[in-house]
Design brief:
Elements: E1 2-10, E2 21-28, E3 31-32, E4 36-37, E5 50-57, E6 64-72, H1 80-85, E7 88-96, E8 103-111, E9 115-120, H2 133-149, E10 152-153, E11 162-163, H3 179-198, H4 211-214, H5 224-232, H6 236-245, E12 253-254, H7 266-273, H8 279-285, E13 288-292, E14 303-304, E15 307-308, E16 315-320, E17 327-333, E18 344-345, H9 351-392, H10 398-403, H11 410-420, H12 427-431, H13 435-449, H14 452-455, H15 457-464, H16 473-496, H17 500-504, H18 507-520, H19 536-550, H20 552-558, H21 561-565, H22 588-594, H23 598-611, H24 632-656
Antiparallel strand pairs: 1-5, 1-7, 2-3, 2-4, 2-6, 6-9, 7-8, 10-11, 12-13, 13-16, 14-15, 16-17, 17-18
Length: about 675
Amino acid sequence: MAKFSVRVSTGEALGAGTWNKIAISIVGTRGETPPLRLDHAGKEFSAGAVEDFQLEFPQDVGAVLLLRVHKAPLLLPVPVGAVARDAWFCRWFQLTPPRGAPLRFPCYQWLEGAGSLALRAGAAKVSWADDHPILRQQRQEELQARQDSYHWKTYSPGWPHCLDEKSVKDLDLNIKYSVMKNSCFYLKVSSAFMELKLKGLLDRKGPWKSLNEMRRMLNFRKTPAAEYVFKHWQEDAFFASQFLNGLNPVLIRRCRHLPENFPVTDDMVAPVLGPGTSLQAELERGSLFLVDHGILSGIRTNVVNGKPQFSAAPMTLLFQRPGGGPLLPLAIQLSQTPGPNSPIFLPSDNRWDWLLAKTWVRNAEFSVHEAVTHLLHTHLLPEVFTLATLHQLPHCHPLFKLLIPHTRYTLHINTLARELLIAPGQVVDRSTGIGIGGFSELIQRNMEQLSYSVLCLPEDIRARGVEDIPNYYYRDDGLQIWGAVESFVSEIINIYYPSDASVHDDNELQAWVWEIFSEGFLGRESSGVPSALETREALVQYVTMVIFNCSAKHYAVSAGQFDSCVWMPNLPPTMQLPPPTSKGQTRPEGFLATLPPVNATCDIIIALWILSKEPGDQRPLGTYPEEHFMEEAPQQSITAFQSRLAQISKDIRERNQRLSLPYTYLDPPLIENSVSI
């Protein structure tokens, strides 16, 4: 007889416990024991419980390879639905053999219905490190089971492929919101809709009566940043600063040569540049910057409340005065084709002409941000990273252990988005200027030009030439976080990969990279996205890119949505009149008539309020309550990572005390580990 002590930990979440029967068998080098039930007086496996059992197995099976967990209904027969409802969230097992140290088997999975699950002892292992055929077979069977459970589909031509599920109701519990998060989400949605419905705004299809009437939206939910936006939205310096620290801080680039289709002259910009200089001199000095929304040129537009909507593809030239001072706009052209019907608007123009031109730029920012920066870069691509991780990396793989916290709830929120945001008749379709068709076209266009360097922050900053523009807090804080993630990833990689050859020889890693390349980037070699990794250095950069985009980048371009949009003229989701083709025609009433109708305003503000803040059940960046790594070395790396993030947060908060508008969108304790809202 072989006597084992068994300790079992059940998760604390609502519904984590089970009434089902739990048994285990041990797979060793000399065979497998029969299943023995874990049973003692009273109820076992309640939520939050850690329980001990003593088991005697009839034979010694040698060195332990696997722990097989068996779950079955307490009473038979039981309706299938009832079995599924009595799911169990197991955190871990600990097995203490008759001789030797305890073995920890991390699980951190929901077990639904009846079935078995094979668990590995906690030490992480890459594929080439498993030399026993039973362990190699277990890796293959685990991956095959996941590939059978989660399938790819094409949601829209030219988009990254995604999970083949129509509704969050169809998702299994391992990728689904927790009961608490789901409840908080729908409570938040229903309360917001009810509030604006009772105020008579949500169903009002007409225009706003005045800018003053729009102030009612500021009472919906107040934030210090939103109040700052309301006070300063007309100021040129604030308009320009949003390209650096607003919700889409990734487009601005240094301008060394004016585009041929943007014929700005010295006379136009002399009032801002001042005496003793010229456009050419400032171009050579590197003090001019360009934001080009050319991707919107010719984009299809939407119909809202039965009225056709309009879009523009503006170019904005900005000036950073040498020696300090705020970034300022110099000129705006609202199309990509210069000419008498596409004037260049200037700060010296009529107040309403200039304000309307800036507002058209802000509308372009809304469209490009929501479709490309937010949806494509920080939702659709993280979904690809998530699904490829499930398909190609077993639980025991060090990269699975490293990455799985950064995929939490991503498949749920993206499935929900395909149900409630980008489906026909839903928010994007009924309340944005370019609608689903325009969103889809923007994503297709960006996919054709998307490069690996755009996803790697240090390379992106260099490529845009914005290394030294002052007061660019997205860059400053983002590079600090990128560096912390990169250092952490490098330590983990060096623990498990002793050489470049060990990277090349990891078949599971290579399959993971290939699947991301083929399913996410559609096999486009021109993207520069790797289809294979040959060195530790390349692997570190790649994994850093994945974690950064799934956490910090997403929070940076998501958390400020409500702050930017609740005062709607700062970020209009649609425009009801075409862009002006001449100067001197804009009046206050014409400006107001161009802005979105009341119901579309409310629809978008509710959506962006929901998407700007996690609805409970949060896990900040670097927080890993599920201990996938058992060894001391990676645990030390996690501790060092957390310490570095804490110092970054301290520095950010000290700096923010000096700012009239604090930049909080990359403060580590506020950043979620994964794309989960």
